[in-house]
Amino acid sequence: MTSSYWKANLRGHRGLAATVGVWFVLTSLAGAILLFRTSQPLPADGRAMQAASQTMLPIDDMLRRAAALHPELQLYRLLLPRAPQEPAWAKYWVAGNEELVVCLNAQDAEPCGERLSDSGILATVSAWHGGSFWGRLGARCLGVLAALALVLMLLGLRLERRFGAQSWRDRLWPQRHLRGLRFLRNLHRVVAVWACLPLTLMILGGLTLEFPRTALATLQTVLMAPPDVIKQAGPPGPVAPGAAVAMARAMLPGWNVDFIDIPPAGAPKPYYGIRLLPEDRSQVEIPAFVTIDRRNGSTEAIMPGPAEITRAWIRALHRGEVFGPSYRVILVLLGLSPAVLAGLGWSMARRRRRNQQG
Asked: Which long-range contacts (CB under 8 A, 24 or more apart) does 199-203 make?
């Protein structure tokens, strides 16, 4: 290939680094911060949580009491306890995408703590990383920027292969005898070689979470594994939330109900959404979903297949929910690597201009 081709590659890499690279650095740093975000609020009174017994309040009564706590808000989800001494959690829509989470004693539905969803700096960090920072076009903007970030890394790897070290030892470890601009170039290449493949996987994992339906359909096509859907008719007449949970448990024995979504009054599709987890849960949560029509009890269960299992593992790996704190530390280092590459690239540009002026 001609020298003009490689010069174009270099200009493209530098141009993307100066534009898309800024977003890439901030998004990676945001992901590193979110790895240690608390997923659930802590109860204000730990004694109230410990007082919960094995006899849980009926779900219909718990929902009525939860709705009475904040009648001005829409109660949309109730998370059931996973163990006898754990609390239940009620979630309410407040405004926009903000929600109020209330901890409830499972025995009498008395509140034992509440808080709003992420607010302030943490909300901004989460919105930036997830794409909602950009409003309605957030998902599309995130997809375009992620694709350009992949092009940025691809151009960098092509340049490394063309002008970098010839041996793998020199590519994987910095050369100590170098100084000045040559040392910065060498260190930039080494960090890029170590980080590019994991960063590519993290970007693809993030796109899987941002476009869940498209990702699931793609996985089902690639793995040739359509979802396993079970349907059955329900009892005549309307179905209460407690009856819907009982129907889901009877339909899927050996599964525990994780939460139930409550359709708002007047919804055009008044379906209960119920998420279930197997009793013998593995390190990664692989749920089944049951939808029940509130009007007539018609039920549809979607069982996890190879595509759903793959997506669950992608989600867990991307969010650092597996392999303990050591894996999270690795993800934090990975999240810092774009900032290191950007700093080295800026230092190289500054050193290069200084040498040209000198």
From this structure: 199/28, 199/153, 199/334, 199/337, 199/338, 200/150, 200/153, 202/31, 202/318, 202/331, 202/334, 203/146, 203/149, 203/150
Q: Give the predicted TM-score (pTM) of the model.
A: 0.80
Rounded Cα distance, 165 and 237, in Å: 73
Residue 282, C-beta contacts closer than 8 angstroms, at least 6 positions apart: none
**How far is residue 186 CA from its own chain's centroid?**
34
- Euclidean distance between CA atoms 159 and 7, whole angstroms: 10
Mean pLDDT (whole number) for 125-130: 83
Q: Which of 274, 261, 271, 275 is nearest to 238 (CA)?
A: 271
CB of 203 closer than 8 Å to CB of 195: no
- Average pLDDT (136-146) is 83
Cα distance between residue 79 and residue 125, in whole Å: 26
Nearest to 52 by CA among 103, 96, 109, 105: 105
Whole-number Cα distances in Å, 170 to 49, 153, 164, 174? 57, 19, 9, 7
- DSSP states of 322-346 as a string? SSHHHHHHHHHHHHHHHHHHHHHHH
Question: Which tokens go with 204?
Answer: 């693809």
Cα gap 133→167, rounded to integer Å: 43
CB atoms within 10 A of CB 172: 12
Q: Write out the CATH class of domain 46-117.
A: alpha beta
| Torsion angle of C-alpha atoms 305, 308, 312, 313, degrees rounded to 10 | 60
